[in-house]
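Notes from hallway chat w/ T.B., transcribed later so I don't forget. T.B. wanted the structure written out for a chain they're using in a teaching module, and asked if we could keep both sequence and structure tokens in one place. Agreed to drop them here.
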Amino acid sequence: MKVNDLKAILKFSSREEAMFGRFGLPRDAFYPMILSLKLGGAWSYDAGDLQSISVMKVFTNYDEETKTGNTIEEVYLFLNPEYVSKEGIVNRLERCGNKEERSLVTRPYSVILKAERIIVAAISTEKRKIFVRELEEKTMSFKGPSAFYAAHEMEHLEHIEIDGLPMWAFEYEEMKGQ
């Protein structure tokens, strides 16, 4: 690793520590958010009396005229989350970090979560900034992929083994025509 890269990483880590320190929470409460920011996806953390999950929403601002755009990722951190409601059933292929292959699982199409605190980090690729704030709301609703990720992480907190039909239970079939 180059010295300049190492300096940049250390500077970033210092700013990260200062930002998350403003919320008066233990550092480990932010692990799911930090992992989402750095690696993508949704994550969970369970220390018994403190649980947290991160859930991502991704948007794209695209200008048809200039044919350019930027994504905005919103990473929501829920402290001690609970379900308010779940609706619908979606069959989907999913892979958990604990397993090597994807499995067919069922997830709710939409969920509403409540938490003691909700903190959001919005990543602007256009401005190359991460905007962090605590929401006044104590509930959030998610649909589609964000709901699937939330449900997956809630299973981790509930100590439910994420299990589904393995990929090798599927059969290949040739499609005829176009």
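Follow-up for T.B.: The first helix runs from residue 3 to 21. Might be a good example for the class.
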